[in-house]
Give the backbone structure.
Amino acid sequence: MEEIFRQCWAFVNPAKGKTETLVAGNYEFPFEVIIPGDTPESVEGLPESWVIYRMKATIDRGRLQQNIHARKHVRIIRTLDPAALELAHSMVRAHHSVISKGKG
């Protein structure tokens, strides 16, 4: 498996050598990432080829306890911009043939 893109954030950053304890509960850590424009879109369902993306979050619990990991499947789907030329100019080709047979 090849890694195409990686981004790391530290949402809680205690001073070096110190720890920070979070009380039990749910936490939100908003983030934003700009994925490079040449990143391939997701491809799934083919027997021998695929492109999948996963997001992984880790809670580093120090040396004495196991880290906690959460993973989420992310699907990248490419769409055309509504202003794209392909949508603005539709082209229709028609070929008509008329054959008439007279009564003979």
Remarks:
- The chain has a mean pLDDT of 75.
- Residues 1-82 form one domain.
- DSSP finds one helix and two strands in the chain.
